[in-house]
Amino acid sequence: MTKTHRDGHAGPVSGGGQVSRAPAHPSPDGPLPADPQLARELLDGLAEAVVTTDRAGRVTLVNAMAGQLLPELTPGTDLAGGTVPALARAVTGDAATFDAEHRGRRLRGVCRPLAGGGCAWYVRDVTDEHARTDALLAERSRTAFLARAGSRLGLSLHREQTLRSTVTLPVPYLADAALVVHRPPQPGEDVPHWLRYADGDPGPVGGVADPELTGAVPGLVEALSGATTDPSPWLDAELADLDAVLPPEFGRPGTVLISPMPSAGGPAGALVLVRRVGRPGFDQRDIELAREFAARAGSAVAAAELYGEQAHLARVLQHSLLPPELPPVPGVTLAGGYRSAGDSLRIGGDFYEVFPTATGALFALGDVCGKGVGAAVLTGRVRQSLQTLRLVEQRPRELVALLNRALFDSPDAARRSQFTTLLLGSTEPGADGGLRVRIAGGGHPSPLVVRADGSIVEARVGGMPIGAFASATFVEVEVRLAPGELLLAYTDGVTEARGGAAAVEMFGEQRLRQALATVAGLPPAAVVDWLLQLVDEWLDGESHDDIAMLAVRAADPA
């Protein structure tokens, strides 16, 4: 008898009127389907190999994947018998896992105990996983190498140091020995030079390349000529000519890789990487890495050469523009001081000059418009003009007027708005043993006179900047220095030096006057050194404009 449930379904009726319902899900502790064919299909559908053994360690079952990965194992095979060495070692060593190469594949297995004392080995093929991991690690290693190489190459601005980094960085990561063949930057010297570093060498060694070297190594001539072809490995057992540039104990070269070192100005050289016999050859990723490294090295060498040229030019310019050693002048004691605004080149727009004359000396102190290299060029022009014009005119005001005309008439002077302020003075011995000083001014701060009693007097000199106006007017004043009295000419870099507690307050003329009052009667060299020290302490390392000063005093009696 059946009853209809409220939901419309019919079901069997048990005693007492209760409805008996079948469970919605089978119990997990219930019996599994006893269907060998179904079990076999399930095992063969797994993506990993399954091998079961009995209590004695003999194979009782292998699935389809096990037949592919471990064809040596069949039902009845003793795992400890060694047909699969990795499994045999794991079984005899009571290990529950193994990870080893088998038939060119990387296999990883784990053992799970079975009821009745048997065991089930689950084996996976992890070859592709290992390959991806190895590729990722290799790429990270290459990236780290390039980053380290870029940092080392970028830090060096000297050509020889850059070449040394180029041969040491690839060893031993890319090769057992590295060789850079390059042409020196000196004009007229076209003979290639080489620099080598091998694993185990205490440091790089170099020499001049023989003509046979470039022809003996395949691809070297092309690389030195700037060929842009991709580098390629050369497996040549007859590369005996490399023995001349390799260490005696290196042995016969195995694989050689040539990479050009391109740069914007032409080929900087060629990088030769050599591996010993027995080390694997260069694969495609090694070639690409070597090409990238050689390109960076070529750019670094070119940058170092450019820096070397600029440094040489700067040294020449600096030598010609630095204030000269003051010549001895009978009856006059002089001292000069100088600080340039630039941090790298000790040249700038402030200058001083002293020229001995028949009666004493002609001196000049000036400050050209601007600073740095541009100001230095104008400084050189002013000083050269003074050198020439003083031969035809030594009166200060007339000489200033001639200099103004020379600068104003120079090409493109108006367009560049280049001019200079200047103090130009002449000295003649006085009857009392002092000095008679005539000073002409061109828009420059007036010099200060330190009297014997410590008082400070300003020698007022006006005038207009030199080289700014064609019809500029200039004035001249005369100052008499008694024995022991001193005249100080200075540029505005002294009074406008900003420092102090907030690094914004100017040194100022008042502070300069107070400092001069404390050194009255001292020789000019001591006065200049003291003032420079005070200004340096005031600046306390802050940036500043060019600074120049010139002190003039009558010489002490013999």
Describe the structure.
The chain is an alpha+beta fold and 558 residues long. Helices cover 31% and strands 26% of the residues. It has 14 helices and 25 strands. The protein has helices at 36-44, 64-69, 85-92, 127-155, 159-168, 211-216, 220-224, 284-321, 373-389, 396-408, 413-416, 492-495, 508-517, 524-539; strands spanning 2-4, 10-12, 49-53, 59-62, 97-102, 105-113, 119-125, 177-182, 193-198, 205-208, 233-234, 253-261, 269-276, 332-339, 350-356, 361-368, 420-429, 435-442, 448-450, 456-458, 475-481, 486-490, 498-499, 505-506, 547-554. The strands form six sheets. It has a six-stranded antiparallel sheet with strand order 10-9-8-13-12-11. Helix 4 packs parallel to helix 8 (284-321), helix 5 runs antiparallel to helix 8 (284-321) and helix 9 (373-389) packs across helix 10 (396-408). It is elongated. The model is unreliable at 1-26 (pLDDT under 50). Residues 159-311 form the GAF domain. This is Serine/threonine-protein phosphatase. Residues 1-36 are annotated as: Disordered. InterPro entries: Bact_Sigma-Reg, GAF, GAF-like_dom_sf, PPM-type-like_dom_sf, PPM-type_phosphatase-like_dom. Residues 329-554 form the PPM-type phosphatase domain.
